[in-house]
Amino acid sequence: MVEVQDVIDLFEQEGTWVDWQGKTRDHLLVGEELQEVKRIGVCWVASRYAVMEAIKQGIDLIITHENPFYQCSTQMNTAAFKAANDKCQLLIKHHISVYRCHDVWDRLDEYGVADQWVKRLGFTKAASNSQSFYRLMNTDGQSLEKIACRITHALSVDGENGVYVFGDPNRKVKRLVSGTGAITNLYEMLVYEPDAVIVSDDGVQTYDAAQYAVDHDLGMIVVNHAACEKAGLKAMVPWLRQRLGVKSVKYLDDGIRIRYYTNHLSSH
User: Fold this and answer.
1) pLDDT (0 to 100) of residue 268
2) Are 104 and 15 spatial neighbours (Cβ–Cβ below 8 Å)?
3) d(C-alpha 15, C-alpha 26), whole Å
4) What would you measure as the largest C-alpha separation in the chain, in angstroms?
5) What SS3 state is found at 7?
């Protein structure tokens, strides 16, 4: 029999870089450690959309990468507070526990978010610190535009259909650095001496980062935060099946995606 605590122990044993006794985002948010787990659902964020799917499938434990209860603070918006409470009560009613696995999964080798993002894009990973949130890739001198189109195609698997780009689309890129999530920091990525970077939409402040990129002829491709991390969460499914012996581990669609609409003007 597998219990919630067994799943927690697995992540804690794997994530040797996480400060388990200090500050970490990875905690059991809803439920009890001794609850039996027969079915696990994995998602980028336990949105209400994902929770309803978990209920339909009889899921006992949801593993969410991002915080499903919005931004907790002492001055929380009333609407957010009510929505968080409603979601929590829904989970409790259906005996579903929720564990957030963030700090472990961002940097886990091969199966984690950073490595799976590189794999999905189909580039070769250059030597870099595996415990970093960033990955350096070799692109054989492809243009910034070609790389952006390649990323857009890769994102289509999860229903995304666009990115936005700063810089000369014809610029040749040999050193491409990717970051994932809100922790992405353009200035930290400069240590890799990139020709272009991939950042997430809530990981950069475009008025600042875009200005720097344009001033220094640095290509910058901006993608949806969820889009650059979902490949890593999907990879958690076989990883858990193998290590826990729980056959019923499924990826839950959370409904989080951006659709881009553009106005193509033709010259007359």
Assistant:
1) 46
2) yes
3) 10
4) 70
5) helix
